[in-house]
Amino acid sequence: MTISENSSEPAALPVILIVDDQPLNIHLLNQILQADYDVYSATSGEEALAFCQSQQPDLILLDVMMPEMDGYEVCRRLKRESLTSDIPVIFITVHNNTMEEESGLAAGAVDFIARSASPGVMRARVKTHLKLKQQADLLRSYAMIDGLTGIANRRHFDQALSAEWRRCARLGKPLALILIDIDFFKQFNDYYGHQAGDACLIKVAACLKAELNRSYDLVARYGGEEFVCLLPETTLSGAETKAQAMLQSISDLGIPHVRSELGGKISISLGVAVTMPANGEAAVDLIQSADRLLYEAKHAGRNQVKSMQLTSSLS
Q: The domain 154-309 is classified under which CATH number: 3.10.129.10, 3.30.830.10, 1.25.40.10, 3.30.70.270?
């Protein structure tokens, strides 16, 4: 794969992917955009799709006419995948006819720019669509955040689980899930009141999130006093270590709980399930297994971890 990068500070700039089978066309667009953006390039549709699976750009400039896979098919495939469906695609074309534009918009593109457009027009159109994407991303992020704790909500988790299941299945990597429940939380609310209960949930959520040190790990509020943690590419031993660290960090918070039967402070129980995802299997089995293990942890006395490595039914 030939992916070229043109920025010394990629994290600070929007990422643009140029897809064109002609190196000269890539060079010309790169010259126009490299001062303001982190520019990457791909010379085929397959290469572009592979790049977008590993790193989602903020915008794609896509050539229509390419061998093997044309721009329309690349765009359709991007729009079919939840991981890439929200990336705006602008077609770059030498033609300027209504039929071609209709085909591109039907495939999911947001705009067409003629290859003959001036650098100023090119930069302005790119800037406009990046601003629109930023606004859309902000609105989507609000819909994915739990209003009380500020961490991911159940909807965000469901989408992340689906995406990571497919990704780990494709890469042959394990996927770990930790289901977490605050022990005797109803008694906490009854004794201290719901405002104190909300404050407790906020502290627990922040503590669990602080234990995650990889950008693709996720902790979400699963419902009520339950939380869930998704750990892609994590083995059973790694997930157990993380769960034990969470158990200890919540204990270290020292939140008083006089109605608890476990030492007078807030504690948690955790169920850890790890599997090797496979196409044709359901991610819900991983959740159900973690839920059963959480029940075992609570039934065994709470304030502990129960874990299991699952075996694929397709192996």
A: 3.30.70.270
pTM: 0.67
Tell me the pLDDT tens digit for each residue of 198-209.
Answer: 999 999 999 999
Query: 90: part of which helix (H) or strand (E)?
Result: strand 89-93
Q: Which listed residue (100, 164, 211, 225) is catalytic?
A: 225
Is 225 an active-site residue?
A: yes
pLDDT for 105 equals 86
| pLDDT tens-digit map of 99-113 | 778 888 888 999 999
Q: What is the overall mean pLDDT for the chain?
A: 91
List CB contacts of 281: < 8 A, sequence separation 6 or more: 312, 313, 314
* Residue carrying structure tokens 């572009």: 48
- CA–CA distance, 272 with 267 (Å, rounded to integer): 16
Q: Are 283 and 165 in contact (CB under 8 A)?
A: yes
CA torsion through residues 158, 268, 199, 225, sign? positive
